[in-house]
Amino acid sequence: MDTKTPPIPLKVQEKPKPKQQESVADVSLPPLTPYRNHRQKQKTPGTQWSRDVPSAIRYQDHQKKRPYRVLQIGATPLMHACQQGDRARVLRLLKEQEESIGYRDRTLRNALHYCMDAGTGGAVAAAAPELVNAPDAEGHTPLHLAVIAGDTQLVAVLLANGADVNAKDLEGHSVLHWATVCGEAECVRLVLAAGARPSTPDLRGGSPLHYAAQCCGAAATAELAVPKKVGLKVLQTLLEFGADVNAKDEDGRQPILWAASAGSVEAVLALARAGGSAAAGAADKDGLTALHCAASRGHARCVEALVNLCGAHPDHVDDNGCSALHYAATLGHADATALILKLGADPNRQDRKGRTPALCAAAKGQLETLKILAQHGGSLYARTIRGTGVAHEAVASGRIELIKWLAKKRPSTLDVATHDGKTPLHVAALHGHLDVCKALLDNGARINAVLRTSKGNLMTALDAALYRGHRDCAKLIQMHGGTTAQKLRMQKTVPNKGQVRYTYVDLQNLYSKAKAPKSRRV
Question: Region annotation Disordered: residue ranges (predicted)?
Fold first, then answer.
């Protein structure tokens, strides 16, 4: 198992704010495109336009009668009137300035994008039906903006005027995607009743049901401002209209994996009921199941529901041979770790590299979960296929509290060697952990154990510290009698007065003594 967090579906963005572009840390799922809010469009005097249509515009006016111009700055009076919801002014401008109806602003939005209510929207749509399905620079039609605003009356008017209910933006997000992530349950039902496809995927394969499952979680709700009850209502509505519970995104994840990652027990159970027993065991392209996803995020209630109510096996492994316990322990989720052990998981299960949950927890310096594993029979003497032990991983993490706990609990683990002769002191010297070096030396670590590198060179702990430029560690090791592998080749002896004789030491013997026997799989 890689020590990093498994690729779990993360957040989708909240309703777009004006003039802000949010960055997305987890690229495992596609964010919904942020854009400037049409409600807060500012007026700019000195309206200008360009007769050149940018190459990004592929939409053409159906009637070919009105001028198609893109404003470089500002907006037309008609756009301002639509934004302010002034229906009387809109009707007057539609008659007086008919030539400006087809104009676009610099984001390629027309007057219908600016409409704030059903009254103005109906008037513009009736006067210029070719604008109903016109996309802006990011592919959003007026119907996209209407569902984002949650204006059901405007949505109904646009649908009555021929709006495409399955229109997608440039990232493949449909009108239903946006209604789902914005928590507009009434709009969801309205567009579904109008013929929206409930399982249409975006460019990354995420269906509206995927996003609804994620919105049901507490973590997602905090960012999206979608109440959990609303998220569940949207999810139930999608299932009611036949959304595919087994739909997969580009990574092979089904909606139940998204729900487990978000920590929504209710969504997990609803999807499991809709998908049968197969949903709980569904795995993505890396073999990760819903149980892996819940454990990696520390969602203990989801873990319990998946095992006890959905039939998930606590020892199910992914393609790397890692169980849910590996992820919970590695990422420091103590409650989830204890629960999975209580549900019957094997504390000493090894992955394809021979790593146990204890080895993975030690690698990340997770003292609390390592203690829990030890209490439930997790071996502190476990080795990987290369002979790496718990102490090696703990030293690499640099957490001195973990080293002290091992020294008290299992002091003999602090001086074991891998198959190539590397001891925890070598690791500490290579990483420059001075306090860890001191703790190991205080607990009797061998000072001049010999390591054979991948290039066949021999190296002591002092060599390791000097090689990496850690002079403080090198000085400490020298103070305790450390020397280099080169000096070990020759030792001075003075058998007679005035006579100096050199004795050569067979480093192959030193190396073989330092080398640990091959470990058995625990």
Answer: 1-50
Same domain, 306 and 348: no
Asked whether residue 343 is domain-assigned, the answer is yes
Domain count, the chain: 4
Q: Which residue has the higher pLDDT, 221 or 154?
A: 154
> Left if phi > 0, otherwise alpha if psi is -120 to 50, otherwise beta: which for 334?
alpha
127 and 151 belong to one structural domain: yes
**Residue 284: domain span:** 204-310
Residue pair 319/286 in contact (Cβ under 8 Å)? The answer is yes
Strand (E) or helix (H) holding 52: none
The answer as to whether 90 is a domain residue is yes
- Tell me the mean pLDDT in the region 28-35: 37
From the list 336, 328, 342, 289, the residue with the least C-alpha distance to 312 is 289
Residue 445 lies in a domain: yes
Contact yes or no for 271/279 (Cβ under 8 A): yes
Partners of residue 338 on adjacent β-strands: none
Q: CB-based burial of residue 453 (10 Å sphere; 0-12 exposed, 13-18 middle, 19+ buried)? A: middle
Distance CA 102, CA 109 (A): 10
CB of 110 closer than 8 Å to CB of 143: no
Tell me which of 12-16, 65-69, 460-464 is least confident: 12-16
Alpha-carbon gap, residue 393 to 406, rounded angstroms = 12
Residue 36 pLDDT greater than 70, yes or no: no
Tell me the pLDDT tens digit for each residue of 326-351: 999 999 999 999 999 999 999 999 99
451-482 per-position pLDDT tens digit:
999 999 999 999 999 999 999 999 999 999 99
